[in-house]
């Protein structure tokens, strides 16, 4: 008969110490909300996906309230390609015509979300997938995207949404009943129209409204890098302004850093951009003193 029990990779004494070291963090964050942004680029490897799902379940089991907000940029891109379309981005926002909006809703609200829900459930959690429509969660309007260099100029990015308001009651109900909400970044407007919202923006706003203890943004890079490619472990608002102005921060990092900064300034205690390619990075970030990626400071 084969023994399915995985052999420990560390000595029992070291293992016991590691577990004991997690206790103060479990106590500190018990009952606290953690908003986790799971970026489309971080969810491409099945082994990493499984490690992510296990981390979410473990955090829930030790008494924290994880809320997952997922992206899916690369997955939308693949679906568009099949239709012969190529995505266009302005300042990190996908230009969203009516056909693209249909694809976004289909990919985010369908395939991507169901994969994450399935993984968490297989890992022993009770995940529930929601879009911003469910329970009236995310009310949005058309985004007016001001040019980053010339504030008198605006870009028309189609059905990209700006969040007007969030009604978190559906999330609190789910949390109270031990479910783990998995939110896709789609909002609804005054005439019931759909909006494509950048997932970083949604995660940051939810973290603020829920007054989360932490906002963790898992992406496909070590954190924010400087011009030389060195990791910046901490960023202040003035340094962020400089890095945006000189083009060091560009593309998808623009909405991420803007959302992270908004959340930090609005009372979310700890905001981190971390490398989702490192197995269990999230667990180490929450339950150990190891610092990962870039921490965003409010001042
Ligand atoms: N200064 C920077 N430091 C790190 N990444 C940056 C920077 N400027 C732009 N980026 C880009 O931002 C990307 C992360 O944003 P994005 O692709 O939207 O990820 P996600 O899907 O996780 O939201 C990185 O892979 C990198 O290409
Ligand atoms: C307006 C806008 O850009 N929306 C994003 C929504 C998905 C997302 O944010 O995915 P990632 O987190 O993987 O980048 C998009 O259409 O790609």
Task: Provide keyphrases for this structure.
single chain; alpha/beta; Carbamate kinase; eight-stranded mixed β-sheet; two-stranded antiparallel sheet; 9 helices; globular; disordered N terminus; binds adenosine-5'-diphosphate; binds N-acetyl-L-glutamyl 5-phosphate; AcgluKinase_fam; ATP-binding
| Widest sheet: strand ordering | 5-10-2-1-13-15-16-14
Question: What number is the mean pLDDT?
Answer: 93
Rg is: 19 Å
* Major β-sheet annotation: 8 strands, mixed
Named CATH architecture? 3-Layer(aba) Sandwich
Percentage beta strand = 15-25%
Structural class: alpha/beta
Which fold name is given in CATH as the topology?
Carbamate kinase
* N-end to C-end Cα span: 60 Å
Bound ions, cofactors and other small molecules, one mention each = adenosine-5'-diphosphate, N-acetyl-L-glutamyl 5-phosphate
Number of helices: 9
Q: What's the β-strand tally? A: 16
Can you identify the CATH superfamily? Acetylglutamate kinase-like
Helix proportion range: 25-40%
Question: In words, what does this structure look like?
Answer:
This protein has 299 residues and is α/β, with parallel strands linked by helices. The chain has a single domain (33-296), classed as Carbamate kinase, CATH 3.40.1160. 39% of the residues lie in helices and 21% in strands. Strands 5-10-2-1-13-15-16-14 form an eight-stranded mixed beta sheet, with helices on both faces. Helix 2 (46-61) crosses helix 4 (98-122), helix 3 crosses helix 4 and helix 6 packs parallel to helix 8 (253-265). The termini are far apart. Bound molecules: adenosine-5'-diphosphate and N-acetyl-L-glutamyl 5-phosphate.
